[in-house]
Design brief:
single chain; Gclm
Length: about 150
């Protein structure tokens, strides 16, 4: 069996921005879903949406990748920007599984999540979430050999 060619072999910094997940039709809030599970679903959905829009040859040579779900990107008006909350970082094992299922096994190696931010905007006096999304930063040392 031929070995899969990595899609992002030189990328050592990856930023993932889900956009406004309130507008994702396929993202359904599940009872007892943890923030980590929701974040995992957003990362997977963003990678799935972003990858087909990128030139694979360009990704092969890139050292940084800003992966954004452009269909749901919105600029928050200054008066609606509230406090940003830093959430739990996704476990490395779960992130590796997501990367392997959306890219290749080699692309999923040696990543270390650095931080994740969950943001939301509420409609005043009604408690309805108008906008919600995640931004995640992960790094890897591409020079490090797998042990």
């Amino acid at each position: 069996m031929a070995e899969e060619i990595p899609i992002i072999p030189k990328v050592n910094t990856l930023h993932i921005h889900s956009g406004n997940i309130v507008n994702w039709n396929r993202l359904k809030r599940k009872p007892n879903q943890t923030p980590t599970e929701e974040l995992a679903e957003c990362v997977s959905g963003t990678l799935t949406a972003c990858l087909p829009t990128k030139d694979r040859n360009e990704l092969q040579a890139s050292t940084e990748w800003d992966c954004k779900h452009t269909k749901f990107m919105e600029t928050l008006p200054a008066d609606e920007r509230g406090d940003l909350k830093v959430t739990d970082i996704m476990p490395v094992k779960r992130f590796k599984e997501i990367m392997a299922s959306n890219l290749t096994e080699k692309d999923s190696e040696r990543w270390e999540p650095q931080w994740a931010i969950r943001y939301s905007v509420l409609v005043k006096c009604r408690g309805i979430i108008k906008t919600k999304g995640y931004i995640l930063k992960v790094d890897r040392d591409i020079k490090q050999r797998k042990v």
